[in-house]
Amino acid sequence: MKILVTGAAGFIGFHLCKKLIEQHHEVVGLDNVNDYYDIELKYARLKELGVLKNKAEQFNSLSESESLKGFSFVRMHLEDRKNLFKLFEEQQFDVVCNLAAQAGVRYSLENPNAYIDSNVVGFLNILECCRHNKIKHLLYASSSSVYGENDKTPFSVTDNVDHPISLYAATKKSNELMAYTYSHLFNIPTTGLRFFTVYGPWGRPDMALFLFTKAISQGESIKVFNRGKMSRDFTYIDDIIHGIEIVLKNPPNIAENSKKTAPYRLSNIGNGSPESLGDFIKAIETSLGKEAEKEYLPMQPGDVSRTWADVSKLEQMGYKSSVNIEKGVQKFVEWYRDFYKTNG
């Protein structure tokens, strides 16, 4: 297939591009390479995909990009409606994986406009491009954050999610509503995946695993929010990519939707087994061979105390999470030490 992956310089997008290239798909990666976190890490991911930094800084359209092993890259904002439409018309994609978004719950309190621009306006542009270019399947990233402070566990896609507690979560919920509308009106098969705390090599520097590993390696204290009384459905990146592969091969149809009006699907994608924050920190300490100095703090605004994914719907399609936190954390630490050339 010819597949567009937005957010190609991001954590999940990078890994997905690598897997799709290995499977001999023709892949076009799109990213604006913004500076929300360390831009050099994004360039390093692109280099792994065969894109040199000096070229990545110059990209305005696909014609100026380089191609390696079935991969091409274009630097573009999703908000750039004119050029996005041009890209779709020129390339005639079969499938779109929209992983590009302004990420981060806490940052949404500081820069709300970035979330509306990328996650709402940008997503609308993606939907419009899919509508006018006969895309066979749109897969897009939602988030476990849409569940907010839901008490019922595990979190199910049938749960009410009308009370988001961060703007980031609200934009992801809006994506789900917008996708349903376009599926209903224009018969576009859409799948929204609610990601649960993805971690692993090449991960984001603003996530707990990266922050904790860096701090412990440098002999600094780590900030443990809600005084450690938290649990997460930590999901290793290889399991996430495996789940995306399954979904790509099985686009939704009207018959499977409960309302029978649209080829629309929502699925959780997680480990299906939450771990306490304390156990997660212990796995990091074990992998590093160092004990963390902990600074216990209250809960942060917009955060939640626990997440737990009901992945039964995805399991019915053949998904199975197979990497536990001990193994996954060890793999991240090995990557971190190699990438940053540290023995800490």
UniProtKB/TrEMBL annotation:
The source organism is Mangrovimonas yunxiaonensis
Pfam families listed in its UniProt record: Epimerase
| PANTHER family for this protein | EPIMERASE-RELATED (PTHR43574)
Annotated ranges, domain NAD-dependent epimerase/dehydratase: 3-254
The keyword Transmembrane helix belongs to this UniProt entry's keyword annotation: no
Record's signal peptide: none
What are the UniProt keywords, alphabetically?
Answer: NAD
What is this protein's record name?
Capsule biosynthesis protein CapI
